[in-house]
Fold this protein.
Amino acid sequence: MTRTLKAANTTLLQRRSPRQLEKYAAPALDKGLDILELLAEEPDGLPQQEIARRLGRTVSEIFRMLATLEHRGYVAQSPGGDRYVLTLRMFAVSHQHPPTRLLIRAALPRMQDVARALGQSCHLGVFHEGRILIVAQTDAPGAHSYSVRMGAQVPVFQASSGMILLAFQSPETRAHMLRECPDFKRKEQEQLERKLARIRRKGFEEIPSYQVKGIFNLSAPIVDFTGAAIAAMTVPFVSRIGATERERTDARKALIEAAEDVSRAIGGAEQP
């Protein structure tokens, strides 16, 4: 839902001439957004002088903007007072958007059911500016588990959820999404389309983790009323000693059933 609105807004902006865009420019807002985007890439924060240098601004320009952002709770000073870091304020604001709230509210109980039944963690990912953003996560019961941190952003082509979110889209929406992916190689599009077609036929993705040995990523789509995936529910299945192939098959079935339940809860189309 969010992606559709963003695509529509992008189209409207593209229709405006450079002169029109200049007319609507808001320099102060640009500076504030530049700071937030820069700090989003720096989990340890940056000193004021370094922020100014990276953005090509003067320290005095940055000082007033940082003071405002700190007052509004979007940034904070590190314990030593030598750096500015991003707070969770933006993350909290993004989750006040009704479609995201509805999705998470519907998904969390089923994710918790899956985690308890399988003894595995479960997380929910959405497409966000060319990456996969983890918007909800439930830990596995017990002392030993593997999980993905909520709020983490993962490259689309290094995540089973990324393949799910690309596979269950119209060709037009998928093309728009791919343009946002920094690691997309156009020369590999034909091979990618064949892979996505296989995923659509299966209705899920099951593949060894791109990053951690011994883990199989199981992902299933949560779809809207058109059948397009708005999120992917994923279980990073830990292959424990003595585990059988049947256990992973059962986990996949439980995950697909949970994703279908969430799709129905938000008014999504029935999967064939």
